[in-house]
Amino acid sequence: MKMNMKKFTAMVSIGTLVLSLTACGSKNENKTESNKLIVGTEAGFAPYEYMEGDKIVGIDMDIAEAIAEDMGKELEIKNMDFEGALIAVQNGKVDLVAAGVSVDEKRKKAMDFSKEYVNSTEVVVVNKENPAFTTIEDKDGDEIFGDDMNGKIVAVQQGNIADFWVSDEGNVKPSKINRYTKFAQAAEDLKNGKVDCIVMDKYPAEDLVEANDTLMILDGTLFEDKYAIAVKKGNKELLDQINETITRLTEEGKIEEFTANHTSSK
Questions:
Q1: Cross-strand pairs, 74
Q2: What is the domain range of residue 95?
């Protein structure tokens, strides 16, 4: 009986020790997590986010790094599809999304957004050797519109503001909209005649054309947009910190500096 009691006491002591160690491990694990700021992005949207070797860099990543530094945290970058990143921030799997995110009323219902930090210009990319059309202007060159894309196969990044724009029949009536997760895939289809054009941001378009000499950007701006950082709905504390950092970066001219750094070398 004494042996049993000793065994029981030993088992209780070991169990207590295991529980104690487990609790300490959980506490340390949580502490590690709390010291990280996790950003979701799609690293195929240069110069905002792109791969440089095995590292994800870009304008948005510089901004995210500044936010993390202001918060005293380590930045962790998760590369995923654009739509997947927006879903991840809504589900709390990432803290924020910095991926050239446009703000619209539908997204405002699902996420909260920082102040806008960059203006974007949307353009049209075509096959230079066999363009489906050569202008996005009216006959007098006074108005920019999308009528020349009517009846054409238009490529966009899925979930991007260009996707929303070409999906609105008040803007354009394409015969088909091909949606891609990567612009590189759209470029290949444009070169092979599987699509007639790509609608996308000017800076990534310049990067795409530089890498594909059979493509060109049409003159003119199709429409303009602005980008912001997305956070989970109701996360006011993080949103306030992001806005504080964006304000500082803007006042110090840092965002212009980030933009120059990632465009002059491309």
A1: 36
A2: 35-118+227-263
